[in-house]
Amino acid sequence: MEEISGTIHTVQITMEKMGNELKYAKGMTYIKSLLLIFPNIGGILDNILYTSTYGKMLNVPYIGGSYIGEIYYNFGFFYYTSNFYRNIY
């Protein structure tokens, strides 16, 4: 039961921070993560690594991941349709 409340808390924090502190990623975290197959020589990919990681963007220590929170971070209120599409395929 404790794990469920932690995951719901992650979604709550995501919804509170979006629009006020953070901008919607518009699906870019998925595209940016593809660049991470290359080695990060000299730290040239540090910014991409930071912005493609959903949990780091929330800037809250010891927070768990959340599938629903990540989709909301990427697609905003369109997460209903993206989640439906993602579950079909």
Structure, explained:
This protein is mainly alpha-helical. It has one domain. Helices cover 60% and strands 0% of the residues. The chain has 6 helices and no strands. Helix 1 packs parallel to helix 5 (67-75).
Defining key terms:
single chain; about 90 residues; mainly alpha; 6 helices; about 60% helix; globular
What is the gist of this entry?
It contains 6 helices and no strands. The chain is mainly alpha-helical.
Topology:
Layout: H1 2-17, H2 28-34, H3 46-51, H4 54-58, H5 67-75, H6 79-88
Beta-strand segment tally: 0
Return residue spans where pLDDT drops below 50 for at least 5 consecutive residues.
none
Q: Span from first to last CA?
A: 30 Å
Radius of gyration: 14 Å
Helix content: 55-70%
Strand content: under 5%
Please tell me what the overall shape is: globular
Number of helices: 6
How many domains comprise the coordinates? 1
Mean pLDDT: 76
For the largest beta-sheet, the strand count, sense and barrel status come to: none
Give the structural class. mainly alpha
Task: Name the helix and strand elements from N-terminus to C-terminus, one letter apiece.
Answer: HHHHHH
Quaternary structure classification: single chain
